[in-house]
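Structure first, sequence second, as always.
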């Protein structure tokens, strides 16, 4: 693991796998999740298929820069948004998805990579979309996985999934790890694995327990607004992947994304929820290798 400055105010923690001479694939993680969310063995398997794989911590997460000078109270923020008090909500959050996208592109620049294949999951899909929209010349292909266009009508969470998402976890390690099992609510019905969820939670807690960043990342998502009009103009080769069991971001989010992006390929996967079960890695990796192989190298 390395940490590198990507701007005057942000340093990003990252890891890479494979041969730097192979086509680069940047993996962008989702809301509140560290780079660990892209399992090391998944990254190695993709690298073994001839890709130079880079996973990283978003700002306000893991070992990347934290914005402690801008505390956000989740309850106050949600109340402001719900009541339509956007000036108050806007003032609470110091960045948007655009700045998070710039972090990823800045990481590529710092690594000497001009263009890359960008794969984002959940909020990471929103960030990846933003990268392709803001700097299309730098994104060889886009893969938007279990994500959405941020339009309110599409990709809505079930009440049960939303309750788990916003429920605070215990601050002690034992309680934090045990609470990870709640995420089975949005996992694959067939392959959902409580032990794997606990293992990831324990590893994440030990590496960097940092709940303070969650409010700012949530604000960045909500306040960045929908991307529907911009996605209609996107010309980057795009693959949209979504699990049919997803209750955190309903499959309509993926379908809508593919509907808007001209020429996008839509891959709806049975037995996948808002997760990447090990049993489905071969199918996911095959899809990524196929998609990222169509435009050559950086």
């Amino acid at each position: 693991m390395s940490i590198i400055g990507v701007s005057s105010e942000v340093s990003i923690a990252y890891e890479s796998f494979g041969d730097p001479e192979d086509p680069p694939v940047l993996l962008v993680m989702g809301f509140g999740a560290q780079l660990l969310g892209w399992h090391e063995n998944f990254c190695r398997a993709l690298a073994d298929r001839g890709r130079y794989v880079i996973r990283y911590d978003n700002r306000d997460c893991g070992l990347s820069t934290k914005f402690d000078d801008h505390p956000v109270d989740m309850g106050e923020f949600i109340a402001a948004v719900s009541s339509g008090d956007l000036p108050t909500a806007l003032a609470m959050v110091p960045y948007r998805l655009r700045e998070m996208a710039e972090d990823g592109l800045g990481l590529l620049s710092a690594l000497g990579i001009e263009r890359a294949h960008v794969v984002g999951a959940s909020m990471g899909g929103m960030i990846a979309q933003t990268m392709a929209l803001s700097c299309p010349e730098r994104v060889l292909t886009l893969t938007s996985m279990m994500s959405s266009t941020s339009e309110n009508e599409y990709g809505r969470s079930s009440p049960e999934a939303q309750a788990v998402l916003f429920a605070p976890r215990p601050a002690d390690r034992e309680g934090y790890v045990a609470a990870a099992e709640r995420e089975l609510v949005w996992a694959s019905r067939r392959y959902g694995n409580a032990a794997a969820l606990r293992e990831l939670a324990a590893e994440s807690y030990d590496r960097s327990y940092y709940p303070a960043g969650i409010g700012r990342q949530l604000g960045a998502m909500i306040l960045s607004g929908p991307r529907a009009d911009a996605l209609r103009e996107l010309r980057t080769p795009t693959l949209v992947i979504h699990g049919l069991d997803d209750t955190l971001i309903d499959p309509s989010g993926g379908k809508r994304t593919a509907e808007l992006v001209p020429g996008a390929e839509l891959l709806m996967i049975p037995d996948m929820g808002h997760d990447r079960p090990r049993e489905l890695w071969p199918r996911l990796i095959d899809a990524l290798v196929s998609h990222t192989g169509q435009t050559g190298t950086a």
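Margin note: The chain has a mean pLDDT of 95.
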